[in-house]
Specification:
Layout lengths: L1 H17 L14 E2 L5 E2 L8 E7 L8 H12 L4 E7 L11 H12 L18 H10 L11 E4 L5 E5 L7 H12 L5
Parallel strand pairs: 3-4
Antiparallel strand pairs: 1-2, 3-5, 5-6
Length: 187
């Protein structure tokens, strides 16, 4: 029982640290992000689209999910899905490389063509503002606890659901994406 209470307190503390007023945008597509290729990532172009936000890492047991994410991107991009990878070194130091090294790894090993952001922090007080916003939307249970955590954002700009790395690929995610793609933007 003590372990559950301690875990709950820790999650609440992490969630409280993430939800910093003033850092989360009203419209998440107004968040400024850099592209792994250099320059700015045009998040405004994602307005009205379904976005699967994924914190990635090159040296993780789940790195093979790059292949599945690329398959989702190719299958649904013309229907309005954006898979947005955000390399992060927050968990197990499994993304130590530079942006150029990460990009080369993703392209050479998994033929990744979906958008990749600059390497960012995705948890804690120094989390990128997009992850600060997502944490406020999901609460502590939706905050990434490992690499390849997925956050599904609907056409209306609201978080629909999140998926852990271990349970995050497969039929449940596919159904959630299909439902999000068939929903109309509500405002």
């Amino acid at each position: 029982m003590f372990v559950y209470a301690l875990a709950g307190a820790l999650l609440a503390a992490v969630g409280g640290a993430l939800a910093q007023p003033g850092r989360e945008p009203v419209d998440w597509t107004s968040v400024k992000m850099d592209s792994i290729e250099g320059g700015k990532l045009d998040t405004a172009a994602y307005k009205g689209r379904v976005v699967l936000l994924v914190n990635t890492a090159s040296f993780c047991g789940f790195t093979g999910q790059y292949k599945d994410l690329e398959a989702l991107w190719r299958k649904y991009k013309d229907k309005g899905l954006v898979v947005l990878g955000v390399p992060a070194n927050d968990f197990g130091a499994q993304e130590p490389g530079s942006n150029a090294e990460i990009k080369k790894f993703c392209e050479a090993n998994f033929d990744v063509t979906f958008p990749l952001a600059d390497k960012e922090t995705v948890v804690g007080a120094k989390a990128h503002p997009l992850y600060q916003w997502a944490a406020k939307q999901t609460g502590p249970l939706g905050v990434p606890t490992w690499n390849f955590h997925k956050i599904l954002i609907g056409r209306d700009g609201r978080v629909i659901d999140w998926f852990t790395a271990a349970g995050g690929m497969g039929a449940k995610l596919d159904r959630a994406i299909e439902a999000a793609l068939s929903a109309k933007e509500s405002g």
